[in-house]
Amino acid sequence: MQLGLEKHQVALECARAKLAALFPTHFALEPHYLYDAATGRVRFVPPELVTEWLRDGLFHLLLGALVPDVVLHASGEPSRVQAVFDFKFPCPSGNPLQWGQHPHHGAPQGELYEQALGIKRARLVAPGYGVQ
Question: Which end of the chain, N or C, is surrounded by fewer C-beta atoms within 10 Å?
Fold first, then answer.
């Protein structure tokens, strides 16, 4: 599990470096979106606010948040999502590549990203599998 977390951090840093060079105002890493499935409402939570809530122990304010790994969006507008990518590191290799269930919403992450963020298809990214 620790190895998976370390791989995830390396992948995020690689994505940050590449995307910052190409599209500096068009991406977000691990953005937080509060999603109310009953109403379909989605609210982007700015990273500074996420940091503040976590620092102050207000974890409950992020309950049910959707947190994809990489979001491509309109310039400077993380609420206008254009594409979503999530890194997966299946262990052991050879296991099927699949979306995990969101612990709060009880649905596959990919489906939630598509419904909440209004994109056609959320994509999985994994070594040995590429972009799915």
Answer: N
Strand pairing category for 130-131 and 123-126? antiparallel
Q: For residue range 16-72, what is the model confidence (pLDDT) as tens digits?
A: 999 999 999 999 999 999 999 889 999 999 999 999 999 999 999 999 999 999 999
Q: What are phi and psi of 13, to 5 degrees?
A: -65, -40
Backbone angles phi, psi at 46, to 5 degrees: -60, 145
**Per-domain residue ranges of the chain:** 2-131
Would you place residue 94 in the very low, low, confident or very high pLDDT band (cuts 50, 70, 90)? low
Give the type of residue at 68: P
Contact 82, 120 (CB under 8 A): no
Cβ–Cβ < 8 Å for 95, 131: no
Angstrom distance (rounded) from CA 124 to CA 88: 7
Q: Measured in whole angstroms, how far is the alpha carbon of residue 14 from the centre of its chain?
A: 15
